[in-house]
Amino acid sequence: MGLTRRALILCSGDESSDHLIDLLVNNGYIVHILTNKNDAEKYLGKPVYIHLLADELIGEDLESVLGEVELAVAMSPNEDLNLSVGKILRSRGVPIVLAIVRSSEAEKKAESDGMIPINVARKIFEELVRILKLRFTKIVLLESPVAVLSLHVTSDSRLLGKTLKEVESEYGVGVTIIRGGNTITDPEQEIQQGDMFIAVGIIDKLRELLVQ
Amino acid sequence: MSKREWLRRELGTIDMYSLVHADFQSTFYLTLGFIALYSGREAFFIVIYAVALMIAIAIAYGEIGSRFPEAGGSFLYAKHAIGGGLGFLSSWLLMIDQAIMVSYGTLDASNYVLTYLGVSHIPPQILAIALSLMLYILTLIGIRESAKVALGIVIIDFTVIGALLISFNIIAGTVAEPPHYRWEGVEPMDLLVALSLASRGFTGVDAIGQLAGEARKPLVQVPRAAFLTATIGVLYSLPLTAILMSRISYEELVEEPSLALLLIARETPYISWFVEPLVVLNIAVIMLIASLAGYISFSRLAYILSHENLVPEPMVRLHPRFRTPYISLTIVLIISLLFILPGEISFILEVYAIGSLFNYLVVSISLLMISRKGELYGGFTSPRVRGIPLTALFGIPLTFVGLVFNIIVKWSFLWILGLWLLLGLIIYMRRRESKGFRLHSG
Question: What CATH number has the domain spanning B13-441?
Fold first, then answer.
């Protein structure tokens, strides 16, 4: 295997592929584009290999360099195609395969096939929550029974006016808040509307904190 | 994770053409007189054969090169189509041509200048070494800088050979009737030798493929540069042959076949006094820039072979500031000095371009195989005849015949290539063994 760093993009047919190509090329990657004949011409102005999708998806030429591909991004609008190509790439030993998906079901399938799914619907949702500061809670299990809770503090939250120390002693969790981009850990600080509230602790205690 | 190193993408179509022009044209300037010497009245037909071969090679490079965005040229093409072993073999053979090009280009430029100036007390080797060092520094500093210098030389060449020598002779109405012009009664001396020389008359186009890794838009710029090369090759070679056969008598040519262009300059009506020194200067700088192309091609081939672990690792290293393959460039410098020092490289020149022809044959075959797979999309696709690209259809038989001509004529000198191949084979086997060892030892 050579020293060349290769990346593969199952193209999206829009300018997001262009941006990704530029990013990778400017970082020294040799980029291979996998696309159909209709979209192939769009990439002639880029310093990339253009592989046409074969009946078996991955053609012989692309197959011969897969051993050198260290990153693949399946970003076509076709979710099933992303999953199929991603699965083949993982089975051929490509270490990092990112797959764009739109449903939870596809997200699970991608994960089970060894890919890193990027759920577009979820990303849109998260972005909306961030921009509009909507009520949002999320509990992620770190290592059972320890989990992390994050939520946006809204005007109707029962946490409003409480200090970090009060919450910590009441539920036995560690608390921090992010306000205007700054991390606040002062135990005497009161929780305000717009804060991002983060707590780490036993998952049952976090759930209890949520329903209060 | 190993350290990432990559070449800068800074070249446009004209830059690429400029870097190839001198390598390409210099071979024809050097061989034109000898082709005419051996082919006599048939010289024009022999040059047409050379031009057909050149077009086939250039367009084949354009078509296959429009599918590969990285440095490596024929090595990559052969590796994809046939296998890494043949890719290494053909690239290794091409590399000796590039090293010879650096040596004979600088030595020839020195000879031209010193002879014309009547300087006999300075050995040409001294000037050639200085020139080779200068080119080494230039290629070390950067490809863009090299391209700018090459573009300047292209403009000089267009002015002196294109505008003054060719156009002036045509406008002056001194060109006789084709195809024999004024050599009607001149019997060919040895057509096989002439065909062998003609097959090697336009080597150098391969550098376009090497530059793909430094082109901004290789998939469209490589075919454009190849088309430009073919077009200008035709526009130069056929008129120069016609003018030579019209203005210069065969007896005059026999005296100094290596100075065919200078002979034309001496016989150019009205402006010979003016154009003669310019032609000397022009040929000297063209030889120099051909050497520059030799530096670039050799170092880029070594770079890609090192990338593939086929030659020692240091050859892939890039200069931290200039991002050029400085170890590979230093190796070219050392080889060139070894060839320059004896001051006589005609022996090595006997095998010049045979490796290139083999390489071109491999490229045409690779094009055929890659096209039949149909997976790699490119910026230029030639018409197909029963699924076979027209470029490969012409390229394969023409390059094969050219190679056969040279093997027949240069049979007794092929041991030189054999030695070079043996060295390559030893390196290749050792690298394979060391790779195997690494695999087993984890």
Answer: 1.20.1740.10
